[in-house]
Amino acid sequence: MRTTEISRVQEYLRKAFGKDRIAVPPPMSADAPVEVYIGSEFVSVLHRDEDEGEVSYSFVMSILDMDLPPLPEL
Q: Cα 36 vs. chain centroid, distance in angstroms?
């Protein structure tokens, strides 16, 4: 993903989620994934897809069960 694309996606995510702390730094190498952070916490990976000249971006976020709040007791 090009730096200009990364900047545009970062701006979109900040507006969509109302979080100025969202950061999408350029990857260290061309074949490395593009990672999304909120502050210093890694939250997601971005993927770029191009099909018949149309470009889209996928925001893939995994949520670990251990990070969820406990279930309420009944």
A: 4
List the chain domain ranges: 3-62
Give the C-alpha separation, 53 to 55, whole Å: 6
What are the pLDDT digits (tens) for 21-59? 999 999 988 888 999 999 999 999 999 999 999 999 999
Task: Report the 3 state secondary structure along 11-54.
Answer: HHHHHHHCCCCEECCCCCCCCCCEEEEECCEEEEEEEEEEECCE
For residue 74, is pLDDT > 90? no
Contact (Cβ atoms closer than 8 angstroms) between residue 60 and residue 45: yes
